[in-house]
Amino acid sequence: MRILIGRTDALGDLVISLPVQARILERCPQAEVHWLVRPYAAPLLGLLPGLAGVHLREPETDLLKLMLELKPDVVLNLSHRDPAIIPAAKVAGVAVRVARARGVGQIVAASHLLWRSRRDTGRHEAQNALDFLAPFGWAGGCPTPPRLLLNPLEMAQGQRELADIPHPRLGVVTRGSGSGAFPTKDWWAKAFTVLTRSGWNPVVLSPPEDSPLQPVELTGLLARMAACAAVMGPSTGPLHAAAALGVPVLCLMGRRPHHGPSRWAPQGAQVQVVQYPGPEADLSGGLDRLDPEVLLPHLDRFRWAPSSDYPPPESIG
């Protein structure tokens, strides 16, 4: 069975959708899984175990041609904001076409529709993504946490680029387009003072315009995060990717309705979430009310004894 998964929106959305492939291969090991993603997100899938192919979704992509050449048996369009995927799959004769009930074109062209609301359910978006496997009876249950991999050369490059920053390194993502709330630059300046005094060595890794480092492509950012003892920032794509790499993550989240930890927190065994106090639903600047001192006990759980060689993320206690 050949399956094409469309996930053509944000970086974090792709990361939290990786359990879909894991569930498919768990239930149907002989399945051939392909992904349709935006070019900026494709490097995330570089060493994904069991991956059969990655196809780029660009403005000029001929979706019908892609479907006719690939000949998938199943198309799962996890990105309801890309409504052209399912109609193209129907014209190409794809038997199983699964989409959310969003947009007339998708509703008419899909063979299976998801009507369930994702709000106020207490379900993580990774669980919502697994709903697309309902036609096969594979939905539900606990998602396998996403896992991303880097090759040894990429890992070594990340270490070299951060060689001037002593251990323990704390990678920082100051903001992101997909995060509901994030602190201002003034808050980060105060937080860096607190973090440095407590023995951490913070360095801004993303976004590029906030970082003292040379800009790199996505794979380079992943390698830099993997060279850190922990990564901290708002709930945005790089934080989800760091957690999937196995790097300890401290995620800062506001209290915006429908954007809480139960739905959008990064997934992983070494993920902790801190929310700013108060029920307000404001966005940028709301997290400034969070005292940086509150972060220290959470980060102390990630601390490891410095050594000449950085241990792999799995060995960090």
Structure description:
With 317 residues, the protein is of the alpha/beta class. The protein folds into two domains: 2-136, Glycogen Phosphorylase B (Rossmann fold), CATH 3.40.50; 152-315, Rossmann fold (3-Layer(aba) Sandwich). The chain is built from eleven helices and eleven strands. A six-stranded parallel sheet has the order 3-2-1-4-5-6, sandwiched between helices. α1 (11-27) packs parallel to α9 (237-244) and α6 (152-161) packs across α8 (218-226). The chain starts with a strand and ends in a 17-residue tail after the last helix.
First-last Cα distance: 40 Å
CATH structural fold name of the largest domain: Rossmann fold
Q: Using only CA atoms, what is the Rg?
A: 20 Å
For the largest beta-sheet, the strand count, sense and barrel status come to: 6 strands, parallel
Can you give the mean pLDDT? 90
Per the principal axes of the C-alpha atoms, what is the gross shape?
globular
Model regions low in confidence, pLDDT < 50 over at least 5 residues: 305-317
Look at the structure and name the CATH superfamily of the largest domain: Glycogen Phosphorylase B
Overall structural domain count? 2
Structural class: alpha/beta
Oligomeric nature of the chains: single chain
Beta-strand content: 15-25%
CATH class of the largest domain: Alpha Beta
Order of helices and strands: EHEEHEHEHEHHEHEHEHEHEH
The number of helical elements comes to 11
Tell me which CATH architecture of the largest domain applies here. Answer: 3-Layer(aba) Sandwich
